[in-house]
Amino acid sequence: MLNIHLVPCLSDNYAYLVHEPTTNLVAVVDPSEAAPVNAALEKHRLKLTHILNTHHHFDHTGGNLDLKEKHKARVVGPRADRDRIPGIDEDVGEGDIWALGPAKAKIFDIPAHTKGHIAFWFEADKAVFTGDTMFAMGCGRLFEGTPAQMWSSLSKLAALPPDTRVFCGHEYTLSNGKFAVTLEPTNAALKKRMVEVESLRTAGRATIPSTIGLERETNPFLRPTSPELRKSLGMEDADVVDVFAETRRRKDVFK
Ligand code: ZN
Ligand code: FE
User: Fold this and answer.
1) I need a labelling partner for 249 at 20 to 30 A (CA). Which of 57, 71, 133, 142 fits?
2) Residue range 195-215, pLDDT digits in tens
3) Ligand 2: centre distance to CA 14 (Å)
């Protein structure tokens, strides 16, 4: 089984060390910067072999070149954005299987936040790395895609088994949850989760990983069929994508 270590970077980013213990292969997912990744490698006495990027944004790839040079690590990223991934050696896309030794990851294309954005799903380890597409109780902004594209991307992730752990790119959970509550004030799973999230954040702890099952119950961006959410938006009879789009628009201006 993989060992996954969370590495806080910048102000609210998470990179992850993914260690395959039988081969000692070690990948880092979305290294914003090299220094905290190097510190985590030392702390866990690991040697970096791979760099995995979900998308090209600097807060997910800023450490690529320094880490690649220092560790001679191989950089893997989205085929659709190959030209924008610093130091890329290997591109992957929808349906590909990428392997860290015996640990196999299925690749999903999940565009809309950026033109090229991928998820790595380690099925046997029940873990998916979702970058800035799915957050805990949230989703990424639509910088380079449409609401229909983002809905399709999120739907691929939501279809994974409910016990799949969700490792996302940022600690946005508390503010995402505050927005979610405005749309589904009587959602019991959401209320329960907010109590847990508030106590974790008060203690300075991460709210990650989430699970796909918990996201389905509490993430408003996965819930455009929820009667309460539709009522809050005044969109009882609207199309699912239109409800999703309005939810995203409201979050864009939520304070
Ligand atoms: Zn991003
Ligand atoms: Fe980001």
Assistant:
1) 57
2) 999 999 999 999 999 999 999
3) 9
